[in-house]
């Protein structure tokens, strides 16, 4: 198995974890036993414990090496562990997930690790001949089409 590659067994194991919500499993919205109290979020504690999750992620990314930061197959496991860590802390501290503090943490992570990643390849410029034909062909066709319309109109009169 390639590092970071997801197999069906790994995916099933991740999906069976109770703390993670997936978009195709929306039964959490109707669950009656969802009784976590969100009366007061301890944001300062969330920042402190979130910082510990950040440090763990930072260490794992350093081990991975800067050259692999844009390779999603290599990064996804560390990113998933970070997400689980933050979500667990939010639930333990009575905070909604996601929230403003978590958003700031993830923005910071993306700025540091993924800002130089380009997920779109730059397309090469089209050859000059193709550009010239694509530009001139419609321009030359317009007078011809106008001539045909005028000619057909004069035949009806």
From TrEMBL:
<dbReference type="GO" id="GO:0006886">
    <property type="term" value="P:intracellular protein transport"/>
</dbReference>
<feature type="transmembrane region" description="Helical">
    <location>
        <begin position="126"/>
        <end position="150"/>
    </location>
</feature>
<dbReference type="GO" id="GO:0015026">
    <property type="term" value="F:coreceptor activity"/>
</dbReference>
<protein>
    <submittedName>
        <fullName>Si:ch73-334d15.2</fullName>
    </submittedName>
</protein>
<dbReference type="InterPro" id="IPR038126">
    <property type="entry name" value="RAMP_sf"/>
</dbReference>
<keyword id="KW-1133">Transmembrane helix</keyword>
<dbReference type="GO" id="GO:0001525">
    <property type="term" value="P:angiogenesis"/>
</dbReference>
<keyword id="KW-0812">Transmembrane</keyword>
<keyword id="KW-1015">Disulfide bond</keyword>
<dbReference type="GO" id="GO:0072659">
    <property type="term" value="P:protein localization to plasma membrane"/>
</dbReference>
<comment type="similarity">
    <text>Belongs to the RAMP family.</text>
</comment>
<keyword id="KW-0472">Membrane</keyword>
<dbReference type="GO" id="GO:0043235">
    <property type="term" value="C:receptor complex"/>
</dbReference>
<dbReference type="GO" id="GO:0009986">
    <property type="term" value="C:cell surface"/>
</dbReference>
<dbReference type="GO" id="GO:0007186">
    <property type="term" value="P:G protein-coupled receptor signaling pathway"/>
</dbReference>
<dbReference type="GO" id="GO:0032870">
    <property type="term" value="P:cellular response to hormone stimulus"/>
</dbReference>
<keyword id="KW-0813">Transport</keyword>
<dbReference type="GO" id="GO:0008277">
    <property type="term" value="P:regulation of G protein-coupled receptor signaling pathway"/>
</dbReference>
<dbReference type="InterPro" id="IPR006985">
    <property type="entry name" value="RAMP"/>
</dbReference>
<dbReference type="GO" id="GO:0006816">
    <property type="term" value="P:calcium ion transport"/>
</dbReference>
<dbReference type="Pfam" id="PF04901">
    <property type="entry name" value="RAMP"/>
</dbReference>
<keyword id="KW-0675">Receptor</keyword>
<dbReference type="GO" id="GO:0031623">
    <property type="term" value="P:receptor internalization"/>
</dbReference>
<keyword id="KW-0732">Signal</keyword>
<keyword id="KW-1003">Cell membrane</keyword>
<dbReference type="GO" id="GO:0005886">
    <property type="term" value="C:plasma membrane"/>
</dbReference>
